Amino acid sequence: MIKPHKSIKIGLITATLSVMLGESVVATSSQLKTSSSSLESTPIILAQNSSNSEADRLRQEGLQLFQQGTAESLRQALEKWQVARQLYRAAGDRRGEAVTLLSMGRINDLLGEKQTALDYYNQALPLYRAVGDRGGEATTLSNIGAVYDSLGEKQTALDYLNQALPLFRAVEDIGGEAATLNNIGHVYDSLGEKQTALDYLNQALPLRRAVPDTGGEAATLNNIGDVYDSLGEKQTALDYLNQALPLRRAVGDRGGEATTLSNIGAVYDSLGEKQTALDYYNQALPLLRAVGDRGMEATTLSNIGAVYDSLGEKQTALDYYNQALHLRRAVGDREGEATTLSNIGAVYDSLGEKQTALDYLNQALPLSRAVGDRGGEATILTGMAFLQRSQGELTEALVNMEKAINLTEELRSLAPPGELRQTFFSTVQDRYQLYIELLMELHQQNPQKGYDALAFHASERSRARRLLELLAEAGANIREGVDPQLLQQEQSLIQQLNAIEHQRYELTQGQFTTEQIDALKTQSQSLINQLNQLQTQIRVVSPNYANLQYPQPLNLEQVQQQVLDDDTLLLQYYLGEERSFLWAVTKDSITSYILPAQGEIEAVAAPYREAINRDNTTTVAQGLPLSEILISPVVNQLNNQRLLIVGDGILQFIPFAALPIPSQPDTPLLVEHEIVTASSATLIAIQREQLANRDTAAKIVAVLADPIFESNDQRLNQITSDNNSPSLDDLALARATRSLGLGDTAPQLNRLKYSRVEAENIAELVPENERMKALGFEASRYLATHPNLSEYQIIHFATHGLIDTVNPELSGLVLSLFNYQGESDNGFVRLNDIFNLNLPAELVVLSACQTGLGREVRGEGLVGLTRGFMYAGARRVVVSLWNVNDLATSQLMTRFYQEILNENQQPIIALREAQLEMWNSGQWQSPYYWGAFTIQGDWR
After folding, report:
1. Would you give the DSSP letter of residue 818?
2. pTM value?
3. How far apart are CA 790 and CA 869, in angstroms?
4. CA pair distance 883, 614, nearest whole angstrom
5. Are 918 and 668 in contact (CB under 8 A)?
6. What's the whole-number mean pLDDT along residues 268-279?
7. At which residues are the TPR repeats (predicted)?
8. For the residues 700-714, what does the mean pLDDT come to?
9. Measured between alpha carbons, how far is residue 83 from residues 58, 89, 101, 241 in Å?
10. Residue 854 pLDDT level (bands cut at 50, 70, 90)
11. What contacts 840, CB < 8 A, 6 or more positions away?
């Protein structure tokens, strides 16, 4: 079904440009109480001390009417100014005439009479030039740019705005400069160039606050909110919009207030809070009608229609859409017209009237192209492809989807680097899903034409792109050559964030209130937002980043050549709403399989995952229903090969090594196969390329284990007891897990004594001069972040782990929380800390709970610790999928390292052998004890 899309217009407020025209003055922001247009436009300028007192009087009366801010008062003001303009002209007062023409243009702009507004502006421009008034010239150029933007002629708009900007700067008009920067940012936003948009808007905001220009500040806050909303960062968008709303009310800008209300409604709509969205829209609508802002009224009507559409009230939706369409055509808003036509098409699609729906989309497409709305064009093309597919026109649908995907890739490259690009990509995954569906349907019809290979490539293009970019940035050392002050600011923010989170942890160890926790959460979120923005800025200004060529996802042939060998079979899964797919790829073949829909797979996978996470009586055979879905189709191709698993969705949480062989329900896959996991096949190739010629570290292993977590730990009072190891019959400790909850209640950080046994067993396998063993107090954050850690080939952490699925930046490892003096110490090593490490290790082992998990981002996978350590330089990372048992993990890791250090086995082989030993032991046979650990990265 075609999904309707919103048409948000933010930052739509009348400009208050401080242009001094000799003895003329500009109305201040507090005086202007008018509606919104797509860009900020001219102030109303009053010529004073003119030789024509009658014209001056009419100008003053017109200004008073203008300030009332209603559609009727605007028309009355226009009548006054038409007479004043004739009087100025008759008197030869070119400046007075120019000012009046500018004001008349502004009113026509507000009333939606765009061509008339252009006519007045173009009459004013030569008059300002004739009298040498560069400020007035800049204002007029800026207003012409605003009109062209609203007409969808974006490049023409930029041409005029870029003529205005240096003139404002030349006359030192900070307000005019800020408004023009704001407007340029708004245009780039509508063109899909989100990073450029943010650059201009973030230049405008401090200028507006410096003037100060409260109304202008509100406009820019709105525009920034718009960018974040379009990138999928809904909460950040709301933060900016909720800053703008009281400012607009403070200056009495009813049109601006209505715009902000409407935009807040649009965000709530996208968050699924439909009634809240309607409440905001219904507050905005009467205000917009009162001030005569037909353009924004149309936007709000269209967005109300989208809510009713999603609620299933199709006729009501059509009523609102048709009202919006009439207004959008009346004001010449081609971009908005395209959106509304597309949404009407979506309604007809849901009503089963496919051809009618397609007709509307065919009307919308040329409009989106004409105004340069690449995002809208991609959405419309996707809708057309969906309809064509439903009519059996697969080839035509594929052509449109290829265009939509190419536009999406282009827009992704223009989005701000870092988390915002990742978030944007998550919002467009439906396009890749439809693209893959089409290719696989065509493959079924024409099995010999390579459509399955194209679908596999599309799957690679749809996943883990941010991780690939991170690895490229690590290799390019993008912080080199960056202003040291920016890097210092970054470290300062990280330190502040760590301090706040440590304070939050300490607060939970005693008496606390919800208000106290919420206050710290707010501070923490603010720091995270600042840090993300600063890191984006660092990338943008980095000389190395400017020259960086990001790696592109590999196609089938490249994966076969650069990733696979004769002994490895790639199993790549893609979960879809209608059906899912599995591609089994060898060095010289590809076979594809159709699997059940995502929901059906989840219905089987979720209870299995829950059971194996929690119950030490879980057997291998309990995974048979899931194995029959995921493994049975390809079972005849397995042939004892190494399996490279690229999962999707819930499959990223499943221990494939523990799934049974379908024909042998009591035998896990790892009996016949080495198993390695990856976010994408391309990731393996990128790692190999980057690390191909890296020198091996001089020393062998560094182990950090058995930290001090609790104030009642006996080691705080008896240093000599630090070497006390547990006995294997200590049942209480045997039940301990290496876990940490992240709720508002106090986390349980029990001592993990068997992590000490684990560490000592590992250390005994290595000569003393080639190892580092840090236990108790020594297992500290200081040591974990020390440059000396880069001297070791293997880094092993045996401790509690923590995962924050909302803010991955807060995920990490917990080391000693007290020092030798018994004083509280920050022992949390968080993801931001890890990204700043230099760890050219062959292997990093996170012998803790859930270290392979993270925030699940659609199209990116799990965002967590693995990518941090890979960014820091690790070739491979061993992680866990659930809260692992302390004693069992100690046993597993001891056997794992014996295979690596005594038998000289590769980590993937060593992990398999250790897990097999546990499974065969009897005591540890349940996959609960050994199945959590998986290896990610290159197996060679």
Report:
1. B
2. 0.84
3. 12
4. 8
5. no
6. 95
7. 138-171, 178-211, 218-251, 258-291, 298-331, 338-371
8. 91
9. 8, 10, 11, 40
10. low
11. 694, 695, 697, 790, 873
Tokens for 70? Answer: 């209603």
Strand order in the sheet with 800-802: 800-802, 812-814, 828-830
The pLDDT score that the predictor gives to residue 847 is 86
Q: Sort 56 into a burial class: Cβ within 10 Å, 0-12 / 13-18 / 19+.
A: buried
- Residue 172 CA to residue 187 CA, distance in Å, equals 23
Residue that the structure tokens 């029959």 belong to: 628
Helix locations, 477-513, DSSP H: 484-508
In whole angstroms, how far apart are CA 98 and each of 106, 122, 125, 139? 12, 10, 7, 11
pLDDT at 21 (0 to 100): 22
Rounded CA separation 32/11 (Å): 15
Element (H, E) at 802: strand 800-802
Element (H, E) at 185: helix 174-190
Nearest CA to 843 among 732, 938, 728, 737? 938
Residues 6+ apart with CB under 8 A from 488: none
Token pair for residue 679? Answer: 């976010």
d(CA 12, CA 138): 20
Dist CA 776 CA 799 (whole Å): 11
Query: What tens digit of pLDDT does each residue of 438-472 get?
Result: 999 999 999 999 999 999 999 999 998 888 888 88
Residue 56 has pLDDT above 90, yes or no: no
**Closest by Cα among 797, 758, 774, 796 to 889:** 758
Q: State the Cα torsion 480-484-485-490 to the nearest 10°.
A: 50
**For the chain, first and last CA: distance in Å?**
45
CA 298, CA 329: separation in Å to the nearest integer? 10
What confidence tens digit (pLDDT) does each residue in 80-105 have? Answer: 888 988 888 888 899 889 999 998 99
User: Could you read off the pLDDT of 289-332 as tens digits, one per residue?
Assistant: 998 888 899 999 999 999 999 999 999 999 999 999 999 999 88
Secondary structure tally for the chain: helices H, strands E: 37, 20
What are the Cα distances from residue 183, in Å, to 151, 154, 177, 186?
14, 11, 10, 5
Q: Match 């290799």 to its residue by tokens.
A: 475
CA nearest to 574, candidates 656, 645, 499, 634: 645
With beta carbons less than 8 A apart as the criterion, state whether 593 and 634 touch: yes
How far, in Å, CA of 353 to CA of 340, rounded? 17
Residue reference for tokens 């091996």? 696
Q: How far apart are CA 323 and CA 326, in angstroms?
A: 5
Query: pLDDT band at residue 737, thresholds of 50, 70 and 90?
Result: low
Q: What is the DSSP string of 586-653?
A: ETTEEEEEEE--HHHHHHHHHHHHHHHHH-TT--GGGGHHHHHHHTGGGGGG-TT-EEEEE--GGGGG
In 3D space, the residue among 524, 527, 521, 539 whose CA is nearest the CA of residue 421 turns out to be 539
Q: Which strand (E) or helix (H) includes residue 380?
A: helix 374-390
- Can you tell me whether residue 38 is helix, strand or coil? coil
List phi, psi (to 5°) of 203.
-75, -35
Instruction: Convert the pLDDT of each residue in 233-244 to its tens digit.
Output: 899 999 999 999
Residue 583's nearest CA partner among 591, 437, 450 is 591
Contact of 572 with 640, CB cutoff 8 Å: no
